[in-house]
Amino acid sequence: MEKVSKNSSMEGKEKYYWKWAFLLLLGVVFGLSLFLGTRIFANREPDFAEIPPITQRQGEPVLTINTNKKKVNQIISFFLSEYQKDQEIEYTFYLENEAMLNGTFEVLGFPINFYLYFDPYMMENGNVQLKAKSLSIGTLSLPIKDVMNMIKRNYKIPEWIDINTEDLTVMLRLDHFRMQNGMYIKTDKIDLVNDDIRFSLYLPKDSGTDKEHKTSKDKKKNHIDSTNKMNDRSIKTKERLFL
């Protein structure tokens, strides 16, 4: 009887030890999993300073360009060739020591070629004003105002260009002009005699920089939250096993 009792007692102790050994092994496995999971999914990216969104053109330019009349004339020529496609009446505009508009109009069915000369002035807001100063139209003598009225009525002019026939001026409203990517242009300097032209490019007011930054920040936060939840579940599972 005593041997049977001792054998039963020893078997009970062995089961007890195996039970704790098994729980200890599970604890080590879950602890290691928790450690590796934390190391793998932990955010190792540094916290960069947030980039403030650009909401107005009066901010810092993203690009400042120094150029000359030849390059500006190439840009103007390309723009007008695209803009005047399928137009019966065409005109050209280019820069020398003064700005010049060249076009034609008909008198008694005959095409008459003219040259209208301007002095350019840079405005405080970065726009450009062209002040008409002289007109070359062969042997004809016509007032500049009449020719400008003809241009305003018959020529295809971009919406951001205002023609004032009373003041004999043409205003290039660059603050209303947008490139295809939405960027703004602002004139910094116009010196035709010394061939020095400068302008700056600005991001559009509705720039997606702030939206992209916010989306990236939200994704980063969601990733950290999901890692924390996984860690919490692992800890709770470990606690239940030991209980």
UniProtKB/TrEMBL annotation:
Residue spans crossing the bilayer: 20-42
Sequence segments annotated as region (Disordered): 207-232
Pfam families, alphabetized: DUF2140
Domain of life: Bacteria
Keyword annotations from UniProtKB, A to Z: Membrane, Transmembrane, Transmembrane helix
Regions of compositional bias (Basic and acidic residues) in chain numbering: 223-232
Name recorded for this polypeptide: YfaA
